[in-house]
Structure formats: C-alpha cells, structure tokens
C-alpha cells in the first residue's frame, strides 16, 4: 500500500497549520539534518487547498522542508521548481512541503488508526520516511505541487546514484516508490487519509540516473471510499513516456484498525 | 522496470564463477563496507543452477555478500536463513548472494546493453544497488534462495526503520522494491538478462517495521521472450498474506538498446 500517503498527511497538515517550529539539533544519526547548506531555503508554509481531514500523526513533527532546492539539484530540477512556484503565485497550484518526519514522545495522535501505537513507540523513535531516508543528492530528490481544481498532483523528481538498478538507470523499485508517493499525495489531498489498495505499473523505458522526470497524477474517479487514480512519468520536454500507472486507494475510516 | 534483475545478474555470475576477490578498503563514502562485524560471514560461492547467461556487467565487482546474517537480523530472520541454508545442502535450493556493487574502470562488459556507457562512467562510479544503499539494519535486510526445479525464488526480508510509510509500517514503495527485486531474480535465474515490463501489486495488509516476511515468487508461464511471474508476501507463520503481485518480464536481446 502506498503508506507514504499517510506520512504525507503531515506535509498537508503543515500546509494548513501555523509554521514556525524550528528544526531540532542533530544529536544522533537518527536526527534530521540541521545544516541545510547554501542551497537550502526555509519557506513559510501557506494555507493549502486540502478538502480531506489530513491531521498530523504526530505533535512533534520536525519542520525541515526537504522539497526545496539544494545543491544537488541540477538545472532542469531548478527550472521546473521555479516554474511551478510561479504557477503557485495565483493560488491555482500549491507547493507541498515534505519532511523526514520523526516521531518523538507523543503517539496520541496516531492511536486512532494505529491501536498498537504503544508497542511501536521504540520503532517510531528511529523511523524515517522512506523516500527521505537517503542523504541529500544520493537518493530521492523531489518536490510536489497540487492543483485542487483539477485534482492533479505533479512531482518533479531527480533520482540519485543510490537508486540504481541496471547500470546507469533507476531501479524499478525506486520508480514504484515515487509513483506510490505521488499518487498517495494526490489521494490524500483529495479526501484525507487513504491507503493504496492496488498499484499497476507499466514500465516503458528506463530512466537514467541523475535525470529529471515529471510525474503527473490525477484522481480519475471516486466511488464511496474508493479512489481511482492514474499517473505517467515523462521527460522534462514531455516527449518521452517512461512509465504509466493506475491505482486504487481506499479512504480510511477512523475506526479502521491497521493491525 | 525491475532493473534490479540486471544487477542481480552480478550475483548470479558470482555463483557460477570463482570466488576469492577480496573486498577493497573503504576509502570514501561510496565504498562498500569492509568491516562486516561479528555477525557477518564470508561464504565461498558455489556453482549455481543458472540456465540463462547471467554475465557480470563489471569486471571489478566488489565481492562482499550482504545477504548473510548480521547483528541487525532478528531471530525470525536467522531461523529462516538457517532453514533455507539447510535445504540448500542437497542442492535443491541455492542461496543467492547479493552485493552493493561498484563499477570502477571497465565498462566494456556493459556496452552490449548500454551503448552510452561512456557517458555513464561518472554516474556508475558513484552508483549503488538501490536495495543495498541503506546502512546495515536501517533499510532492506534480505536473503534470497532459488529452487531451480520449481522455478521459484524465495526472499526472506526484514524491513528497517528507514523504510517507513505510515507510522510503524513499511512504505508501499519499499514493499514494491522487494517484490520487484525478488521477481527480477526469479526471472533472471530462469532466462538470463530480463527486465520488468509491468508490475501489478495488491496490498492487503500493512507490514510492521522490523518484522520479517517471506516473499514467494515463481515463473508461471514463458512465451518466447515473455515471462509471466507472480509472488505473494506472507508472515513467517504463513497465516497472514500481506501482498500479492503479478508481473511481466521481457528477456533482453543482446542487440537491445536501453537508451
């Protein structure tokens, strides 16, 4: 299941809520980076266009937006990011921040969906969001933007050298991860907490390591708690289609037990 | 596409070829680990049951098998590993080693499939196999075994804290990655170099971080260059089905250009 969607709720919750929580000092390897480097910028979160109820799973989320330009981004990535930020000025698009979230003491928030949260406390203290677990430039560099009118989420993605499958190309699992993350974001923005029930990917061409691609996702249909979404991955010039995918997400009920 | 399959060829090539290449000293962050710790064991490679032509993509592969027990493995992982090693004693099963491969100087071997290898030289020098790119215990801990008679590959997998999606559970992309890697191995062992054309995953239940699951994959049908494979992910006691997947792989032709 695209469990990233749940983590991304934290992102969306931040979009709605007041920003300003400073990053904590990095005391151990599990802590998030606090020296973002010369290319990293902190931006104030703005109210989003979330229709669901994307409440945060944690009261102590680390607010270090990792979806902002950093020195590892190449020119294509920066240009696309700037283009979408410009589109966001009139409110038609929204930039969605992304965090290497860390769960600390309070697990109250997650008990609704995770009744065994007490047992997970130790795990959560070490856990990191998978697509953000590799260091800057080595893994998944990405930023997402959502268009609420069209129910579309776009992800600009640059895959680093630690995502290799065949020599010089992205691993299929890395591609699936970004597809999952993008579709999940699109679903969560639309209806709130939802999880992937199925994911069908057609791999058409290999994606070279270090290149930038654009993932376009959209909600095709909603039937009760079911959301049908699709996406494609294209080159920056839109001429090459690398992959296509369809998926089914299910909106979670607050009474749903995940374990 | 499940490009892991190509990387896994290196594994299989080692199974067939003579072992004994010592790990290189770790001079930079890109180098593989050379201090495997008390739980890491080096095993001599044995002749495998590979029917394809799984030639290595590099003449200078680092031979550090990462599919062997290490201190991060929990009891379930160790027990399962030992069970499959025991099954391997009569030759019906084969343990498949796995490497955080590093490409160094020679790219001759990969020119057959990657004509632009020259341009990729820099990328390859930094690249790491995606499922092996996180440090010991934090990401993908896994070992695979293949049964040549039944065309089946089994992967025992323990997901670390950096693979999180929803709090306390594996990210859907991490699950997809291991499915892709296992199916890819099964395909490559059967016919040699092959790549994923499509991957369809049904997520049935969330997988808790740190738990051990078993991925059972098999070749269902072969039609010319097409291979149809399927797999499921179950708990160690086999009572819980976490995910099911089907896939289509295509055997590569030596004349196939990937770019």
TrEMBL record, chains A, B:
Reactions the enzyme catalyzes: dodecanoyl-CoA + H2O = dodecanoate + CoA + H(+); octanoyl-CoA + H2O = octanoate + CoA + H(+); hexadecanoyl-CoA + H2O = hexadecanoate + CoA + H(+); decanoyl-CoA + H2O = decanoate + CoA + H(+)
Q: Tell where it localizes.
A: Cell projection, Ruffle membrane; Cytoplasm; Mitochondrion inner membrane; Mitochondrion intermembrane space
Membrane topology category: Peripheral membrane protein
| Its EC number(s) | 3.1.2.2
UniProt GO molecular function: hydrolase activity
* Gene3D superfamilies for this protein: Hotdog Thioesterase
One Gene Ontology cellular component annotation held by this UniProt entry: ruffle membrane
Keyword Cytoplasm (UniProt): yes
**Cited Pfam families:** 4HBT
Q: Which GO terms describe its biological process?
A: apoptotic process; fatty acid metabolic process
Q: What is its main location?
A: membrane
Q: What class of enzyme is it?
A: hydrolase
Could you list this entry's UniProt keywords, alphabetically sorted: Apoptosis, Cell membrane, Cell projection, Cytoplasm, Fatty acid metabolism, Hydrolase, Lipid metabolism, Membrane, Mitochondrion, Mitochondrion inner membrane, Transit peptide
Report domain Thioesterase positions: 168-241
Checking InterPro entries in the record gives: HotDog_dom_sf, THEM4/THEM5_acyl-CoA_thioest, Thioestr_dom
Ranges for the region named Disordered are 25-47
Q: In which family does this protein belong, per the annotation?
A: Belongs to the THEM4/THEM5 thioesterase family.
Q: PANTHER family under this entry?
A: ACYL-COENZYME A THIOESTERASE THEM4
Q: What is the protein name for this chain?
A: Acyl-coenzyme A thioesterase THEM4
What is the protein's species of origin?
A: Puma concolor
Name of the encoding gene? THEM4
């Amino acid at each position: 299941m695209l469990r990233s969607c749940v983590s991304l709720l934290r992102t969306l919750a931040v979009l709605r809520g007041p920003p300003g929580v400073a990053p904590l000092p990095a005391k151990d390897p599990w802590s998030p980076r606090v020296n973002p480097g010369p290319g990293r910028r902190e931006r104030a979160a703005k109210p989003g266009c979330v229709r669901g109820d994307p409440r945060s799973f944690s009261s102590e989320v680390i607010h270090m937006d990792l979806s902002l330009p950093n020195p590892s981004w190449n020119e294509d990535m920066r240009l696309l990011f700037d283009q979408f930020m410009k589109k966001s000025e009139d409110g038609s698009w929204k930039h969605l921040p992304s965090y290497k979230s860390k769960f600390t003491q309070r697990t109250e928030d997650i008990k609704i969906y995770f009744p065994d949260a007490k047992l997970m406390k130790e795990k959560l203290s070490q856990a990191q969001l998978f697509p953000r677990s590799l260091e800057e430039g080595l893994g998944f560099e990405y930023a997402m933007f959502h268009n609420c009118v069209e129910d579309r989420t776009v992800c600009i993605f640059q895959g680093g050298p630690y995502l290799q499958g065949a020599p010089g190309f992205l691993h299929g699992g890395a591609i699936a991860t970004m597809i999952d993350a993008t579709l999940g974001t699109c679903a969560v923005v639309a209806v709130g907490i939802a999880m992937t029930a199925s994911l069908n990917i057609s791999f058409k061409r290999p994606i070279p390591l270090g290149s930038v691609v654009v993932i376009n996702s959209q909600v095709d249909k909603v039937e009760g708690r079911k959301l049908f979404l699709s996406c494609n991955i294209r080159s920056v010039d839109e001429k090459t289609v690398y992959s296509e995918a369809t998926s089914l997400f299910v909106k979670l009920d607050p009474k749903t037990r995940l374990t």
